[in-house]
Design goal:
heterodimer, A: 228 residues, mainly alpha, 7 helices, 0% strand, B: 197 residues, 9 helices, disordered C terminus
Chain lengths: 228, 197
C-alpha cells in the first residue's frame, strides 16, 4: 500500500464551557469513584447469599445422596467459575484503563453458553431410584427450571448493571451479555443443587439454556440501564 | 500541566479547576475529532459540550489511576452516533456556501499548545475532509483516529468499543478508500504538506 499524504490537522480551538456546565461546576461535590474489584466482591457476595437463600427456600435435590460426590462438586465448581469469570471480565478493566475487557467478556459468554449446554447433554449421572427423567415427552415441564434459573440470574445482573451505570459508552452489549451469562451460571448452580431431573435433554438444554437465555436477555435490556 | 489521570482524580474530589484544566487538555483534540466526524463546526461544538456534560454526570464511573481520555473519546463517539441516528443521516454535509468559510478558518485555528506546528495546505485539508465524508462511519472513524489523530490501533479499538482486529480492518479499508478518493481528486502534490502517515 503506497503511503497517502494526509495533511496535519492541528487541534481546534475549543469553545468556552456551556452555561449549563458552568452551573454544574458551581455546585461540584466530591464523588465516590468506581472500585471494580470491590464491586466484584460485593456482586459475588450478594449473589451467592441470594442463591443460597433460594436453595433454602426451594430445598436441595432429592437424589443428592445417590450421585457421585466428585461429579456434584466438580460441576458445582464449574458453575461457580462460570458465574465469577464473566462477571470479572464485565466489571474489572485492565490496569490503567476504564473500559471493560470486551473481547474476553465476549469469549466468556460464548464458552459458558456452549460449554454448559454441551456438558449437560453429555454428562448427567442419575440415581436409578431417586432421580427423575423427563425426556422429549415431558421436556416442556422444564419451564419451571428456566424460571428459577432466570430468577437466580436477576440479582447479579441488576447489581452489575447498577455498578456499570455511566461506565459503558461503547461495547455495552457484550458486557451486559457477560453479566447475563454469569447470572445464568449462578442459576445453573442453583438448579444443579435443587433439580433432580437428570436426563441429558433437561440438564443440557434447560439448565444450560438458562445461561444462553440470560445472556441474550441481559444484552437486550441492560445497555438501556447502564447508558446515561 | 498535570496529566489527565491526575486532573480527573482531582475533579472527582470536587475540584472544579481540575475539570477546567482537563477540558483545556482534551477538548481541542476532541473537537478536532468531532469536526472530522460531523463535518460541521457548530454540530461538533454542540457534541463537545454534550460529551463533557455526560462525562460530568458519569464521573462516578471513573476508576482512579486509569487514563480517562479513551473513555471521554468513547463518550464523544457514542454521542456523535446517537446524534447521527437522531438526525437519520450519518454525516451532516455542508451545503453550498453554508458554513464552509467558517470551517476552513477553524481548521487552522491555533490551540494554545500548538502554535509552532506547520499549517496544512487548505486545499488538501478540504479535499481530505471531503473524501473522509464519503467514507462509511466506521471507516471514517478508524481513519480519523489512527491516521489523523495519531491514536494506536488498540486505543482506537477501545474508543470504538471493538476489537483490535476489527479496527485494523476498518482502518485499512478506510485508508484504501480514502487513497482512491484523493487520487481521483488528484491534488497538486507540490502543495501537499504536513503529516504523512
Amino acid at each position: 500500500m503506497s503511503e497517502l499524504d494526509l495533511p496535519a490537522m492541528p487541534p481546534e480551538n475549543a469553545p468556552p464551557l456551556s452555561a449549563a456546565m458552568e452551573a454544574e461546576l458551581g455546585k461540584l461535590a466530591p464523588v465516590r469513584t468506581r472500585r471494580p474489584l470491590y464491586q466484584l466482591a460485593v456482586l459475588a457476595g450478594v449473589s451467592l447469599i441470594y442463591g443460597a437463600s433460594l436453595l433454602v427456600f426451594l430445598t436441595m435435590r432429592e437424589d443428592l445422596e445417590d450421585l457421585p460426590m466428585f461429579w456434584l462438586a466438580a460441576v458445582a465448581i464449574g458453575w461457580l467459575f462460570g458465574f465469577l469469570v464473566p462477571c470479572y471480565f464485565a466489571l474489572v478493566p485492565r490496569e490503567g484503563t476504564m473500559t471493560p475487557r470486551l473481547r474476553l467478556a465476549a469469549a466468556a459468554v460464548v464458552v459458558a453458553s456452549i460449554g454448559f449446554v454441551t456438558l449437560g447433554l453429555l454428562i448427567h449421572p442419575m440415581s436409578p431410584t431417586l432421580s427423575t427423567t423427563y425426556g422429549w415427552e415431558r421436556f416442556g415441564r422444564g419451564h419451571t427450571c428456566l424460571e428459577i434459573g432466570l430468577a437466580s440470574a436477576l440479582v447479579p445482573v441488576v447489581v452489575g448493571a447498577l455498578f456499570l451505570r455511566g461506565a459503558l459508552p461503547v461495547g455495552s452489549r457484550w458486557v451486559a451479555a457477560a453479566l447475563g451469562a454469569g447470572g445464568g451460571c449462578l442459576g445453573g448452580l442453583v438448579l444443579h443443587l435443587h433439580c433432580s431431573v437428570a436426563d441429558g435433554m433437561h440438564v443440557g438444554l434447560v439448565h444450560g439454556g438458562v445461561v444462553v437465555l440470560s445472556a441474550l436477555l441481559s444484552a437486550a435490556i441492560v445497555p438501556r440501564a447502564t447508558d446515561r | 500541566m498535570a496529566d489527565a489521570k491526575e486532573l480527573m482524580g482531582r475533579y472527582c474530589d470536587g475540584d472544579a479547576s481540575a475539570f477546567r484544566e482537563l477540558y483545556a487538555l482534551v477538548a481541542p483534540r476532541l473537537l478536532g475529532y468531532l469536526v472530522k466526524m460531523a463535518r460541521h463546526r457548530a454540530v461538533a461544538e454542540d457534541l463537545l459540550q454534550q460529551t463533557f456534560m455526560k462525562v460530568h454526570r458519569a464521573r462516578s464511573a471513573y476508576v482512579r489511576g486509569a487514563d480517562p481520555v479513551p473513555w471521554i473519546y468513547s463518550i464523544a463517539h457514542r454521542t456523535f452516533l446517537d446524534e447521527a441516528r437522531r438526525q437519520q443521516r450519518a454525516v451532516v454535509r455542508v451545503g453550498e456556501g453554508d458554513e464552509l468559510p467558517e470551517q476552513q478558518a477553524d481548521l487552522h485555528g491555533e490551540a494554545a499548545d500548538r502554535r509552532d506546528e506547520p499549517r496544512a495546505d487548505p486545499e488538501l485539508v478540504k479535499a481530505t475532509l471531503d473524501a473522509l465524508a464519503e467514507l462509511p462511519d466506521q471507516q471514517r472513524e478508524a481513519v480519523v483516529l489512527t491516521k489523523l489523530d495519531g491514536k494506536s490501533v488498540a486505543e482506537a479499538a477501545e474508543i470504538a468499543g471493538t476489537t483490535v482486529g476489527a479496527m485494523k480492518v476498518r482502518a485499512h479499508r478506510g485508508y484504501e478508500a480514502l487513497r482512491k478518493l484523493l487520487g481521483r481528486r488528484a491534488p497538486d502534490p507540490a502543495k501537499a504538506t504536513g503529516g504523512s502517515k
